[in-house]
Amino acid sequence: MYFKAEHICKSYDGRKIIEDISLELKEGELVSLLGISGIGKTTLFNILSGLEKPDSGHIYLEDKDITGQTGIASYMQQKDLLMPYKTIIDNVSLPLLLKGMSKREAREKASTYFKQFGLEGTKTQYPIQLSGGMRQRAALLRSYLFSSKLMLLDEPFSALDAITKHHIHDWYLEIMKEMRSPTLFITHDIDEAILLSDRIYIMAGNPGRLTKMFTIEGAKISTDDFTTSEVFITYKKEILKAIKEA
Ligand SMILES: Nc1ncnc2c1ncn2[C@@H]1O[C@H](COP(=O)(O)OP(=O)(O)OP(=O)(O)O)[C@@H](O)[C@H]1O
């Protein structure tokens, strides 16, 4: 298995927040995490990204123990905004500068991804000049350049309007076909989770645990037909039940 978390537990101030969480990601997989507010999703992401250490449990990348190590997973937090006073090219090339590249090298490397991320013609523009969808794609590219080993995205598309969201979903599915790295993302949008994911983990309980996992067959189709199909509605009903049951 490419990425693995085993038996992760975490308490704050003597209160158990998450307990015995184990999950796995294969290369190229898109997996989502669904659960009510306050259940511990962000806490789990902080641990998976190495920002926080678990009280117990371990995290592995290609069988190497990476528990508590930052710089391996790329973590895009909920309010991960672009810097308004920097151009798009300088915003996205920032992680490369932090890795020690010169400004010229960083800009050159970042430029090679602009077409794939739908950002052509935006290099010298400022974030305010871009649409919401483009800003989000720029933020995703910046995260990807931070580390291409694993993407952890905390509600990456939640601030977008429905139509922009629809376009960005199609686009993300396309670029995932070329990415080796898997994506684990938090969402509160069940439709989004079904549409994008290979698998969905349900987090529930107090302390939070992974109570159920759904494998989504036949998704990853960007047509509108899927969201109105019987298969889709059945998944939605089962997922809602799993969230409520816990
Ligand atoms: N550093 C901390 N110190 C103390 N308590 C914390 C800390 N971080 C998180 N918590 C608590 O852990 C619980 C889970 O919070 P967390 O942010 O992980 O939930 P979440 O599922 O991501 O919520 P949301 O969907 O609203 O973002 C909350 O009760 C929160 O107050």
Please tell me about this protein's structure.
The protein is α/β, with parallel strands linked by helices and 246 residues long. It has two domains: 1-73 and 148-224 and 233-246, Rossmann fold; 84-146, no CATH class. 35% of the residues lie in helices and 24% in strands. The chain is built from eight helices and ten strands. It has a six-stranded mixed beta sheet, with helices on both faces. The chain is globular, with a radius of gyration of 18 Å. The two termini are 28 Å apart. The mean pLDDT is 91. The chain binds adenosine-5'-triphosphate (ATP). Adenosine-5'-triphosphate binds at residues 12-13, 17, 35, 37-43.
Give the tags.
single chain, 246 residues, alpha/beta, Rossmann fold, 6-stranded mixed β-sheet, 4-stranded antiparallel β-sheet, 8 helices, 10 strands, 24% strand, globular, binds adenosine-5'-triphosphate
Q: Bound compounds, please?
A: adenosine-5'-triphosphate
How many β-strand stretches? Answer: 10
Spatial strand arrangement across the major sheet: 6-7-8-3-9-10
**Structural shape:** globular
What is the level 1 CATH name of the largest domain? Alpha Beta
Mean pLDDT: 91
Mind telling me which CATH architecture of the largest domain this is? 3-Layer(aba) Sandwich
SS summary, helix count: 8
Helix content: 25-40%
How big is the Rg? 18 Å
* N-to-C span: 28 Å
Residue windows where pLDDT falls under 50 for at least 5 positions: none
Protein name: ABC transporter ATP-binding protein
InterPro entries: AAA+_ATPase (IPR003593), ABC_transporter-like_ATP-bd (IPR003439), ABC_transporter-like_CS (IPR017871), ABC_transporter_ATP-bind (IPR050166), P-loop_NTPase (IPR027417)
GO molecular function: ATP binding; ATP hydrolysis activity
Organism: Zhenhengia yiwuensis
